[in-house]
């Protein structure tokens, strides 16, 4: 088999597709987050949609995100929303955690502000508020794991949840300023955090010349499909479901380029030396706040001997001929653990909603001929 030219025009294949958690579902209108009039009008609009999370777990009904709006929640919860609107306009402590997600143009909406129109979407972390305060409807379900989200939600809904989970998790877990330890206040519709320190405390965050607020943390994680001639690398961690193998993944460390992080992580886990690195596609991963950066790592010639004794993170790693991978991609069936398997072969791969699967598919479709 002939290995195709590295960095061919096909390298744009994945970047042009929409991956799970990564659909551009909403126009975020980030510049309007600072406009309290817009935020108040959007939240109280009868055309708005509020989604709810409970300890970062999305609330759904009939395999779709459960949504409500200002007029549909009970009177007491509506008072809480009024209080949040007031605190958002004054940059004071809010009664709950709420984030403006953006406007949806998927369906027509009469809501309009200046030249911008669409369905306003907000996300609220329930915390101490009970489900009964937002609805009397039965059959609501709280999705607690990635597998449950993967099973129940469309890409459109999952992508909205990805944004909501990342922002609300950050708001929930960042109670104190990293500069001075004072309490923080969510501002600009839950998109920034302001330090509450007084003038007597010289906070390095609050007095910064460029930005005097804190922004959400996003942790970059690389995931690499390793290839060598007509084989691809399958790796397994002991915590994986039975039969599941995947690509090598790990956090990018401070001071590392993506390419060097790929080379380090692959060598630490498998002992393989990577020559060329191709950056292919990314995927938001809200568990809790990661951005997955998908790469292809091309092993240097005559350097294909696997060595697992460096990091000892992997339970197993094996070279698999691309024809077997092609069979998995073409004929594989997904089991209850979201692992794609074929009869007569003990190794499977994650399902097609993962970046690992898409990287393996890319290897089959665009690297080999």
- Low-pLDDT stretches are 1-13
Give the integer mean of the pLDDT values. 91
- What is the string of helix and strand elements? HEEEEHEEEEEHHEEEEEHEEEHEEEH
Number of helices: 7
Distance between the termini: 7 Å
In terms of quaternary structure, the protein is single chain
Structural classification: alpha+beta
CATH class of the largest domain: Alpha Beta
Radius of gyration: 23 Å
Strand content: 25-35%
List the helices and strands and how they pair.
Layout: H1 36-44, E1 49-54, E2 57-61, E3 64-65, E4 67-68, H2 75-90, E5 97-104, E6 112-113, E7 116-117, E8 119-125, E9 141-142, H3 146-152, H4 155-173, E10 184-187, E11 192-195, E12 219-228, E13 231-236, E14 248-251, H5 258-270, E15 274-285, E16 290-299, E17 316-321, H6 322-331, E18 333-334, E19 339-341, E20 349-350, H7 355-367
Parallel strand pairs: 1-8, 12-16
Antiparallel strand pairs: 1-2, 1-4, 2-3, 2-9, 5-8, 6-7, 10-11, 12-13, 12-14, 13-17, 15-16, 18-19, 19-20
Helix pairs in contact: 1-2, 6-7
Task: Give an overview in words.
It is a single chain. The chain is α+β, with helices and mostly antiparallel strands. The protein has 2 domains: 26-173; 219-367, Alpha-Beta Complex (Nucleoside Triphosphate Pyrophosphohydrolase), CATH 3.90.79. Helix content is 24%, strand content 27%. It contains 7 helices and 20 strands. It has helices at 36-44, 75-90, 146-152, 155-173, 258-270, 322-331, 355-367, and strands at 49-54, 57-61, 64-65, 67-68, 97-104, 112-113, 116-117, 119-125, 141-142, 184-187, 192-195, 219-228, 231-236, 248-251, 274-285, 290-299, 316-321, 333-334, 339-341, 349-350. Strands 1, 2, 3, 4, 5, 8 and 9 form a 7-stranded mixed sheet that branches. Strands 12, 13, 14, 15, 16 and 17 form a 6-stranded mixed sheet that branches. A 3-stranded antiparallel sheet has the order 18-19-20. Helix 1 packs antiparallel against helix 2 (75-90) and helix 6 (322-331) crosses helix 7. The longest helix has 19 residues, at 155-173. The radius of gyration is 23 Å and the shape is globular. The relative contact order is 0.14. Residues 1-13 have low confidence and may be disordered.
